[in-house]
Specification:
S-Me-THD_C_sf; about 30% strand; S-Me-THD_N_sf; CV3147-like; 2 domains; CV3147-like fold; 17 strands; 5-stranded mixed sheet; alpha+beta; 7-stranded antiparallel sheet
């Protein structure tokens, strides 16, 4: 167990935006909410999965909706606690702590806010090891852990409890509610036991986000090549370097959809990289050759600062490096690929691990 305060939050938010793979929302909003919470209520206890009891109950609290909407529809900060309290009241049991649903700039921070407000611990695990756009895209789902009952609420105080026959139905119903709530809402979901998190959680992700965030923060003063150090730390692969020349973006059905076109610079001069995204980056091609594909992580970082570039912050002329890292092994199973692989998102191709794709390019 250790305490999470302002400095740790700064690093966790930055690292989580890296593992968000372009999604998860702008880390600034979530970071400021978490900092305000710990300054008001005190630091948060971060506990490992080894430190929790198997029979204790835990739940995730998160934001749902299109990340671009969050820039204008700022949470009031109490929605997530209300969702937590409502689900506890509904099932008639107390939760020991909370955990992030994903590693994303906003959703890595929201459980910290609730943990500070209620004085409960945050578990050092999530259920993706990255960010994904739909509620059922979790390692708990892969383990057969039921997503419901779950709660959705907004900043106005509208709140509902939902029980569904499948996790996919939860996604369908709550996505419609989120759209009606203005494109952003707060949810409490996946009530589970400590035993469930021990078996199906992505362990140590909060700490890993902190390490990566600290590396990025200190990149300018590093004695070694900070980009190469980042690739080593995350077992990553460099895909491309260039300048963003076009961003085609639309928001529909509660998601951000789009395509990024990047013209090559330096060693990639004369080439073009194209990336498709749905909240998160889904597929990367260089000169029409597949370089990486979901569920592996495709990440854009600023060429100079290495600060991750989320999909809502894409701008013409920005110089970026594109890299990829391996998804958690659970996502590379048959059920994992069925749930988050390219065919689920409408691409007529099979999943290929990024390390194999990079060998093909050599």
């Amino acid at each position: 167990m250790r305490l999470i305060g302002r400095e740790e939050i700064e690093n966790i938010a930055l690292g989580a935006s890296f593992f968000g793979a372009g999604g998860g929302g702008n880390p600034y909003v979530g970071k400021m909410m978490a900092i305000a919470a710990v300054e008001k209520f005190g630091p948060v206890k971060l506990v490992s999965t080894d430190e929790i009891e198997e029979e204790d109950l835990f739940i995730s609290v998160a934001g749902m909706g299109a990340p671009t909407v969050l820039a204008e529809k700022i949470p009031n900060g109490n929605e997530y606690r209300h969702a937590f309290e409502k689900i506890s009241q509904y099932i008639g049991k107390q939760f020991t702590g909370v955990f992030p649903i994903e590693a994303g700039g906003v959703n890595s921070m929201i459980p910290l806010v609730v943990a500070a407000q209620l004085g409960i611990p945050l578990v050092d695990c999530d259920t993706m090891g990255r960010a994904f756009p739909e509620l059922q895209m979790t390692t708990l789902h892969l383990g057969g852990i039921n997503i419901s009952p779950l709660v959705i609420t907004d900043e106005k105080g509208n709140i509902s409890v939902t029980e569904t026959v499948t996790d996919k139905w939860a996604e369908t119903i709550l996505r419609a509610e989120t759209t009606e709530m203005g494109g952003q809402a707060a949810v409490a979901l996946y009530p589970c036991t400590g035993a469930n998190l021990k078996q199906w959680g992505v362990h140590g992700i909060v700490s890993q986000c902190e390490v990566v965030g600290q590396m990025i923060e200190q990149a300018s003063g590093s004695k070694e090549d900070p980009y190469e150090a980042l690739l080593r730390e995350t077992d990553g692969f460099h895909l491309f370097q260039g300048k963003i020349v076009d961003v085609i973006r639309t928001t529909k059905n509660g998601f951000n959809f789009g395509t990024i076109q990047i013209d090559g610079l330096d060693q990639n001069k004369g080439s073009r990289c194209e990336i498709d995204f749905q909240n998160e980056n889904k597929i990367a091609k260089v000169d029409d050759r597949l370089s990486a594909v979901t569920p592996d992580l495709i990440i854009l970082v600023d060429t100079e600062t290495l600060v991750p570039v989320t999909t809502e912050n894409l701008k013409y002329g920005k110089r970026v490096r594109v890299l990829a890292t391996k998804a958690n092994p659970l996502w590379r199973t048959k059920k994992g690929i069925e749930t988050t692989g390219p065919r689920y998102f409408g691409y007529d191709m099979d999943f290929k691990p990024v390390e194999d794709l990079q060998k093909e390019e050599v």
